Amino acid sequence: MTLRGLYAITDQPLLAGHFLDYVKAALDGGVTLLQYRDKGQDDTRRLREAQALKRLCESYDTQLIINDDAELAARIGVGVHLGQTDGPLTAARSLLGPRAIIGATCHASLGLADQAANEGASYVAFGRFYNSHTKPGAPSASLELLSEARRQLRLPICAIGGVTLENAPDLVERGADLLAVVHALFAADSASEVTRRALAFNALLRT
Asked: Is 135's pLDDT higher than 70?
């Protein structure tokens, strides 16, 4: 599949009370990748929610990605996104197989992106580019870095961190293939507004 489009990331507190409704609304607006991100310790609940998301994603032909947990990803047969402290990418590739989508957090480092590419990453993620609710203390990345990454890398590039409909055009212009969005997608008053926002993000990536 082509890794280009909206990359929706779930947030447990933000989606409390309308978790599946808002995820479905985003999928209605078009989502290339959906990342299940939950830092909680309730493994039973996380498995149940991940399985529910997988069923939902399959009905939309969207790929589900698990944040930071290659074992959970392997258990339900989906992809994984790994941070720099989540273990080697090569181990995840061995566990999940050659066809699984595996993403790597590269912060603002082209060196980390090169390493991830060599280890078999499916895409690399840079950020944060703007002030972020989810990771307020993360290192900042520049638009210039994104331009340089586009020149150097053959992999799809994901931009994350404070991405909104207002600043996303700059990221796309500099070479982002995937726009990873949490609050600007899901911090909405209604499911219909989530769908509207998803459609608007995807419109920015049509070429």
From this structure: no
